[in-house]
Amino acid sequence: MKRYKLLKDLPTIKAGEIFKETVTGYNEKNLLVRIAPLNAKSPRLKVQDIDNFDEWFEEIQEPTDSIHWKPRIGDRCFILENTNIRPALYTGMLRDYNAWRTGKIYRTEEECEKACDRELAEVRLRRTSTFTPDFENGRGGWFVAYNHLEGKLEYFQCSWQDAGEPVRYETKEDAQKSIRKNEQDWLTYFGVEDC
After folding, report:
1. Helix (H, G, I), strand (E, B) or coil at 61
2. Which of 77, 85, 136, 181 has the fewest CB atoms lying closer than 10 Å?
């Protein structure tokens, strides 16, 4: 559902009012699209009857990435549930609302598939080490990162800082081994196309 901001005053509505688009059926040839103020049932205006629509209304651009998107009831979405992708129309009911709260609702199936692949890669990577960092005593271990400038995976020692990395390794050799054996999972985790 698109939303629009009124750019000029109407006789009973001030500029700046937000309108929502609704499809109410068909006329002889096209969908009958109307717009109405968000907080009122009327007036409803037929889009087809508005000359110079772009001079009167400006479409409000929604965020394009799913994490910043708050679906409205009836919006088509894809929900990630335990590595299953569920196509749905957002209902706002508890199951859908909780999926939104936990960042598991996506605008596109492709975006949902990438998120699923990343989650699975993270689980596999976490299973490559049993090392538990001890940051308070300067034993943070080694972590893997992606260097975008050079286009490669690298490893770093970090004794005191915790930046939320999914896995830490006790030794440099363990980190190197993880890169060798799990390169594709690391690239998937970092969202990097296979080099």
Report:
1. coil
2. 136
